[in-house]
Write a structure and sequence with these properties.
Number of domains: 2
Keywords: Membrane, Transmembrane, Transmembrane helix
Helix content: 40-55%
Radius of gyration: 23 Å
Pfam family, one: DUF3592
Protein name: DUF3592 domain-containing protein
């Protein structure tokens, strides 16, 4: 029986979707294993491993940052470990206290809630969507629809726009909701006691005010603001309003700090791509 090479374009999304889904699912499983069976400690972000990532055409790029955490394990030893996840924007800046889940057998393997979990879930969801599109195209191929027909009528293009747009849209929504979660959290009045710095996506230095405040529980806390400033740095001694995350009191924003512009950009372009993909797919199915 001769192999029909016309099926190869249809198999591409099936294979890619399966790779994305399995890879994301394995990372999610690894994170859950560390949370359930690994060690747990509170650590300090002591540095950021910042590396330049160039665009595919070499015309630009941005810095990707992976936080370096120092923590004391159950055996009393101090360890330093780097997150496996690098991001262009992160609130895990030097000086912030964070919760760490680590592998007791190899403390260099860590999981940081609020930083490491999202990418694995998004990776798995993208894989699931791409795999579903690929399987639908494969089913249509078995029913006599050729790969050329699928390309000509725009089904695969519409699906591609939906996948890309949905992924970008999800990232934008997640970023904005994360900020709003903090902005609607407990409110306190604090005072700026110092400053720490981080590196922005284009290599510019961001200045983060370190604030001391009394939480609603009566505990006195200190933490750097998650939103850095390029200009108009806040002087030491300035009184300021602090909003803290309901479940992570060291994750804070200051009065006037709103969602990042990047979040709205992802929301806009993701929504646009999703709308175009949806319209293309609807038009193919109804005309």
């Amino acid at each position: 029986m001769d192999f029909d090479f016309g099926v190869l374009p249809v198999l591409v999304p099936v294979v890619l979707g399966a790779i994305f889904l399995v890879g994301g699912a394995r990372q999610v499983r690894r994170n859950r294993r560390l949370v359930r069976h690994g060690g747990r400690a509170h650590g300090i972000v002591v540095a950021q491993d910042s590396r330049w990532s160039s665009s595919n055409d070499g015309s630009g790029g941005s810095y990707q940052h992976a936080p370096m955490i120092e923590f004391v394990a159950e055996d009393g030893r101090t360890h330093r470990a780097k997150s496996e996840i690098s991001k262009t924007h992160t609130s895990f800046i030097p000086g912030r206290r964070v919760l760490v889940h680590y592998d007791r057998a190899d403390p260099s393997k860590i999981f940081l809630p609020g930083h490491d979990g999202g990418p694995a879930v998004i990776f798995a969801l993208i894989g699931a969507v791409v795999l579903a599109v690929g399987l639908a195209a494969l089913w249509a191929f078995w029913r006599g629809v050729t790969a050329d027909d699928l390309m000509d009528n725009g089904v695969l293009f519409g699906a591609a726009f939906l996948c890309v747009g949905g992924s970008v849209l999800a990232i934008g929504v997640a970023g904005i909701l994360a900020t709003l979660r903090i902005k609607t959290g407990p409110r306190s009045h604090g005072v700026v006691i110092g400053e720490t710095t981080s590196t922005g996506p284009q290599g510019m230095t961001r200045h983060h005010a370190v604030v001391r405040w009394t939480a609603p529980t009566g505990e006195v806390l200190e933490a750097p603001s998650g939103r850095g400033r390029l200009i108009r740095r806040i002087p030491v001694g300035t009184g300021i309003t602090v909003r803290q995350h309901p479940h992570d009191p060291y994750r804070i924003l200051l009065a006037g700090d709103g969602p990042e512009l990047a979040g709205f950009a992802f929301l806009l372009f993701g929504g646009l791509f999703s709308a175009v993909g949806g319209i293309m797919t609807w038009a193919v199915l109804h005309f």
